[in-house]
Design a protein that fits this description.
255 residues; alpha/beta; Immunoglobulin-like; 2 domains; 4-stranded mixed beta sheet; 22% strand; disordered N terminus; signal
Length: 255
């Protein structure tokens, strides 16, 4: 019995340890970073993301992903609840050696500044410099309580989307099949009828659509298409064309 008790205790301890390890492995990990597309949150776009800073955790603003941009200037509008720190030198003139790429914000006990009101939120402005000029990023900062939801805000470059894999197309010119050649007089009759129809019948959306097709029909006739082929290409009924010819005949009689 004296040897059994330690063995049972060891077994119990091993069982508890095994359960604890299994629970730790099963517990989902938290993603402590937030990613932002730099081109979408640039100040000129008018979109200012909100970042939260928790006590005892701080927040890192990471610009390392922007390979050709260096921090030139930083403004923290209300420093009564936050401190701002960075490593390196601000970039005023290119090229920059050891320029600032990472900013760190930390919560502090509220301080009182003369003529500077304390607010429930503030803004962080970051100006960067690159060969393309200056870019401005602006963030709204709020103050969190309890366990932090994230610790790092990453600014990432815009990745160009891959163009779709489209099949190669070859342009071909369709040669008009020569039908019964139209006399210039008949084409002129169509033109006069179209002009009169546009004056009298261009009153509804449907009529305007039909008259647009008649214009294309006339262009096809002048390009050498036969009358039937041009009518089929523009999806016109024979009744419509006869009506256009009738209006053209009436207009010709008046003239």
């Amino acid at each position: 019995m004296q040897q059994t008790l330690p063995i049972l205790l060891c077994a119990s301890v091993f069982s508890l340890t095994g359960n604890t390890m299994a629970q730790a492995q099963a517990r989902p990990t938290t993603n402590y970073s937030r990613n932002f597309n730099a081109s979408q949150i640039e100040a000129r776009q008018g979109k200012f993301p909100t970042l939260m800073v928790w006590p005892g955790a701080g927040l890192t603003v990471n610009l390392s992903g922007l390979a050709n941009e260096y921090v030139k200037q930083i403004w923290l509008d209300d420093p009564s609840k936050l401190t701002l720190d960075y490593a390196g030198n601000l970039c005023v003139i290119l090229p920059c050696a050891g320029g600032v790429k990472v900013l760190h914000l930390k919560r502090i006990t509220g301080l009182q500044f003369q003529n500077l009101p304390a607010t429930s939120l503030t803004t962080l402005t970051v100006v960067t410099l690159s060969q393309q000029g200056e870019r401005i990023y602006k963030f709204i900062l709020t103050y969190g309580k309890g366990r932090p939801q994230y610790l790092v805000a990453n600014l990432l470059p815009t990745v160009a989307s891959k163009p779709p894999n489209l099949p190669r197309l070859t342009l071909t010119n369709k040669t008009p099949s020569r039908g019964i050649p139209l006399s210039p007089e008949r084409i002129a009759l169509y033109e006069k009828g179209l002009t009169r129809a546009q004056q009298e019948l261009n009153t509804t959306t449907k009529n305007r659509l039909v008259l647009t097709r008649v214009e294309l029909f006339l262009e096809d006739l002048k390009a050498g298409y036969g009358e039937e082929e041009a009518r089929g290409r523009n999806n016109l009924s024979q009744d419509t064309l006869e009506r256009i010819l009738q209006l053209g005949t009436q207009a010709q009689a008046v003239n």
